[in-house]
Amino acid sequence: MSAPGGVRQPSVARARTAAPGTGVARPRRAVRYAQYAALLCYLAFLGLPLLWLLSTAFKPPRELGSAAPELLPAHPTLGNFAAAFDEQPLLRSGLNSLTVAGCAALLSVAVAVPASYVLARRRTLPARATSGWIVAGQLFPLVLVIVPLFMVLRQLRLVDSLGGLVAVYVVWNLPFALWMLRGYVRAVPPALEEAAAVDGCGRLRTLRSVVLPLLAPGVVATLMFSFVAAWNEFFFALVLLKSPEKQTISVLLTRFTGAEGAADLGPLAAASLLATLPSLVFFALLQRRLAGALSAGAVKG
Amino acid sequence: MRRRTLLRAALTAAAAAAPLPLTGCGPRGTDARPGLDYLSLAWQKESVDANKALVAAWNAAHPHTPVRYLQGSWESVHDQLLTSFEGGSAPDVIHDEAGDLTDFAHGGYLTDLRPLLPERLNSAIPQRTWRTARIGGGLYGVPFLQEPRVLVADRRLLRRAGIRLPTVRRPWDWAEFEAAARALTRDRGGGRGRRYGVAWAMKEPVSQSVNLALSTGGRVFHRAGGRDVVRFGPRDSAVAELIHRQVHRDRTAAPSGLGMSGSDVLPGFFAGRYAMVPLNFSYRQQVHQQAPEGFDWVTLPLPAGNRGGRGAGGSGPHGGRAQGVSPQTLSIARDCRHKRAAMEFVAFLTGARQLVRLARGDWLVPTATAALAAPALHTERYGWRTGTESARHLVASPVLGVRGYQEWLDKIATPAFQEYYADGIALRELRGRLVEDGNRVLARYQR
């Protein structure tokens, strides 16, 4: 946060010292207003769909069929939420999603931290080859992987298992997590580790006591990415899970839609709104650390 | 749609590239349950409840072959099934639609039901309906629910314009329909803009254009020399020309409707912007739920082919009342280990009483003759009578069983029809694309 503050101070000072009517401050102020306007437009672009979702979730069916829809429901109702809970086991599937996304995020980070450390610090041929393979792995589209993956999981008896889905998400998210964390590891000065070694720390102790605390922001960012990616994922969950009691929330949401674009719009909006909440809460809890992560990375970079 | 198409194409390629399908080789995945898995695509609450109740009734009567109810969704069922067929863990009883069975039947994923089909079930459903699930000489599904296309109209506006309300026995012909649309089109005044006689929801224009061509004696897909070929003569194109004429020449159809789905046109219909909207029969439920208090709507049959050669086009089968449909089906996976029990379950679900329950839940029309006679489906309320009486004129859509149809639809027909209806290309150009480009696509699948 210090960097933006540092930038702001001189411009504010210059604006204050500029004589009124000289026209020196005006262009800067105009630029600033334009920046705020652009930011507002961007926020509206991002936020409007969410606002509309919120509004739709509270509208009765007759208002959903109105030719002049209003953002604020005229007769707000909780009926859509009641219908959504009545029609589909939202709580159970939400819990499944939470379990899968939480486990996938933790495991991804647990594997990615030591692996990214090795990839960042070791300049050996296997490490470079592994880095290349990670990039190549990301080039395969999901649909080419799914059938062979299904067969492998079937042999391992991991089809229709939340554990199997966690394994898939960990593997699927790992390349990105590794790339992300490798950047953070590289930003940690090797001199710190050398100093720790001089003080008698072994490799593991150095990793745990010196590198890991400095990586905390990167770990948080990776954790968030892995969690949100697993929470939102649809296709693996659709194909790999069969039992009704194991369905995740992203798959369950499609149950409110029919053929040719027909949809039970009110309950769908209500369920979708509820489905976005855990991601928002997770983000809200970790965002302070994420902001720290970004600025920490910026300073180091 | 685009994403779905890419996904579908890539999945098909991936499945084709898999060295050996594991289906039928060795144990059936991790699932060693003695019972059956039933994948249902019912999604409306009443329909889901009806399915669950029927499964519970079956399980109570058949404790040795219990059925597990699995819920899928129409949007993703093809990809889900293709993957699970390849992986050898497909559900035993599969709810799908006839148009989706072609690739699966040719791929060998489904059981040919002919040796299993009980005579009672065979005779319960009309032969013209059975044809919808016959592919390459085999029978791969039991068609159980279907829906005609109907006109949902603002009764008050029609009455005020002095227009006769058509019935299934005495439908409008297309010329009368055009006249009605002209009579209903007017400037509403007070800055409220124009009211159009009709709004054609043409977001997915192909199925409507092909299936309604039957009413004027067209088919679009014809059999010639044992192969499927596309033709687009005057009888095939009469309804498409009519829609184009209404939008661009007569201005009696709303141009904005062309990009809309059935759900999208409803707000404008309720607001009086359109007097009539051609929709699938099940959309009545949305109309019922969303219509403003006191809104007087009526379900009318679609027009029939022109009588006495009036206007463009001629008259097709069933006195020009024929419509092509792709019914919902129940199939059995080839990998199913209890095929007879699965067939018994399908026969149970398609019993007359059960069908009525399922049809009412989904606001659809059953296929079985006995179910169609149920008094509950002959009430005037919500237009049920129009649908059940139209059922006798529903025949297999010409696209059913055509290999390569999906590619023709995605790459050739959908963009071509969209451009034609938007007045971007002329009929001649549309004909060229559908026939010349289209037949090249079909030929690849029929070598």
Short recap of the structure:
The complex is a heterodimer of chains A (301) and B (447). With 301 residues, chain A is mainly α. Chain A has 13 helices and no strands.
Overall shape of chain B: it is: globular
Biggest β-sheet strands, sense, barrel of chain B: 6 strands, mixed
Q: How many domains, in number, for the residues of chain B?
A: 2
Q: Name the CATH superfamily classification of the largest domain in chain A.
A: MetI-like
Q: What's the number of structural domains of chain A?
A: 2
Q: What radius of gyration of chain B results from the CA coordinates?
A: 22 Å
CATH architecture of the largest domain in chain A: Orthogonal Bundle
Oligomer: heterodimer
Q: Kindly identify the CATH topology of the largest domain in chain A.
A: MetI-like fold
Instruction: Give, in spatial order, the strands making up the sheet with the most strands of chain B.
Output: 2-1-3-15-6-16
Structural class of chain A: mainly alpha
The ordered H/E elements of chain A are HHHHHHHHHHHHH
Helix content of chain B: 40-55%
CATH class of the largest domain in chain A: Mainly Alpha
Low-confidence stretches of chain B: 17-31, 308-312
Question: Uncertain regions of chain A: pLDDT < 50 for 5+ in a row?
Answer: 1-19, 297-301
Q: Number of helical runs of chain A?
A: 13
Strand proportion of chain A, as a percent range, falls in: under 5%
User: What amount of the residues of chain B lies in strands?
Assistant: 15-25%
Overview of this protein structure:
The complex is a heterodimer of chains A (301) and B (447). Chain A is mostly helical and 301 residues long. Chain A has two domains: 2-77, no CATH class; 88-300, MetI-like (MetI-like fold, Orthogonal Bundle), CATH 1.10.3720. In chain A, 78% of the residues lie in helices and 0% in strands. In chain A, α4 packs across α13 and α10 runs antiparallel to α13 (265-300). The radius of gyration of chain A is 25 Å and the shape is globular. Chain B has 447 residues and is an alpha/beta fold. Chain B folds into two domains: 2-140 and 328-366, Periplasmic binding protein-like II (D-Maltodextrin-Binding Protein, domain 2), CATH 3.40.190.10; 149-323 and 403-445, 3-Layer(aba) Sandwich (D-Maltodextrin-Binding Protein, domain 2). Chain B has 18 helices and 17 strands. In chain B, α1 (2-17) packs parallel to α3 (77-87), α2 (45-61) packs antiparallel against α14 (352-362) and α9 (205-213) packs across α10. The longest helix of chain B is centred in the C-terminal third of the chain and has 19 residues, at 427-445. In chain B, 55% of the residues are buried. Chains A and B meet through α3, α4, α7 and α11 of A and α1, β2, α3, α11 and α12 of B.
